[in-house]
Amino acid sequence: MTTSDGWAETSGYPDGTVLDVVIVDAEVVEDGCAIETVVATGDRKGELLSLRSPGLDLDPLDLLGLAGTVTIVDGQPRLAL
Fold it and tell me: Is 9 strand, coil or helix?
């Protein structure tokens, strides 16, 4: 699954950045879904990356512990699980 619409919170990550992440928290919020990830590899290992999506049709509990890749394209993150 790849989700790219509406993700936010990527300041400090230039276009083309690819991050291996693990989802450590996810919850439904008023404007969509909030997902907290931790970078799993590389120089940024251990950094928290917060994402929001306005429409995610998954139960947040099903996301916990999943590994994924965040790629920054045009200043916006794309999360692939």
Answer: coil
